[in-house]
């Protein structure tokens, strides 16, 4: 893994943390909040996981690759859930989660 | 507080988290690690506080201002400690901490 | 602040983190989830704040008192919101939040 | 996995978070802090990982088993490092890490 890959992975994780927390906030304001249950849960889980991955990478943790492997899976699942909903916040979250999952998978390899 | 101020504050907190964790890692590799005790502690504390502030702001927390007030103080203290050391990682951390403290103070106001 | 007070405060914060996350999970499963919006948000915020306070206290942070002051306020607010709902998970959360708020206030003094 | 296993795993993770952060604090106060570099790093990493695992379990996360698998490995490594040092804080941390690793492995299975 190169310095550039690490750099990109930290940036995508922090971006994903932000977009997931934005989506979490927006989902809780939706009129049909019952439809967003899974999205709310996954948004929190994914935001927290991305934050944790960024913390590990920035402190040069020897566990960064394994943490990113798990992060990739949670991002994938969160992205798939968000992709089911038409709202702009969900679509934006789905895109960022997929991008982050891809970069995390490379870090994990 | 405007959207631009919030945007800037999230960015500075995430940058500060990263730079503090980098400094923490570098301090632990210094030959004279005994001299870096306070820096190591404050780097971790400041990185964690900035991360927590970013988490609160991105989820639109009503406590963001109060969290940023506390973050400003910890950034200030961490910046002052880092400023005492000549190493590039400490100087860079001192600068980022001061910038973050300033922006957090505005958020808190 | 004595060692016993610190011990009690760590225990109450960790208990509160757990009970708030349990309530968050249970609220997201309620049929009338729309009624639980504020509770879900405050449960997450309070669980995260209590976790952060416990992290600070266990690492002997000089900011423990200030962090506990903020924690006390968030526990108070979360407890008041939970107290409005009759469900067992909310009532249990309201009680724990109030107990934690009280102990945190003493730590902060 | 039974409710009792989950209960035990949350308790061991929270205990381990506390003991690792105590050890981190004590290591930073050791006269020969250079000898404790790896211990300091692993203490922080392990404390943060255990905290994250407890957060996931208490919110009933579907990723709890995978998070605990990773937690078990970090606890194992932290316990092995701490076991090399005679200080009481390290010996206590080594014991708790081994206990937590074992319980996390069962959760992960």
UniProtKB/TrEMBL annotation, chains A, B, C, D:
Coiled coil: none
InterPro entries attached to this UniProt entry: Csp_YhjQ (IPR005560), YHJQ-like (IPR044543)
A Pfam entry, by short name: Csp
Protein name, UniProt field: Cysteine-rich protein YhjQ
Source organism: Saccharibacillus kuerlensis
Source taxonomy: Bacteria, Bacillati, Bacillota, Bacilli, Bacillales
């Amino acid at each position: 893994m190169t310095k550039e890959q690490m750099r990109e992975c930290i940036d995508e994780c922090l971006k994903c943390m932000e977009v997931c927390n934005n989506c979490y906030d927006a989902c809780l304001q939706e009129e049909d909040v019952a439809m967003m249950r899974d999205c709310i849960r996954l948004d929190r889980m994914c935001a927290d996981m991305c934050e944790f991955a960024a913390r590990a990478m920035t402190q040069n943790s020897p566990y960064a690759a394994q943490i990113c492997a798990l992060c990739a899976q949670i991002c994938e699942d969160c992205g798939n859930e968000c992709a089911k909903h038409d709202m702009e916040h969900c679509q934006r979250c789905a895109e960022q989660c997929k991008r982050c999952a891809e970069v995390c998978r490379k870090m994990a390899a």
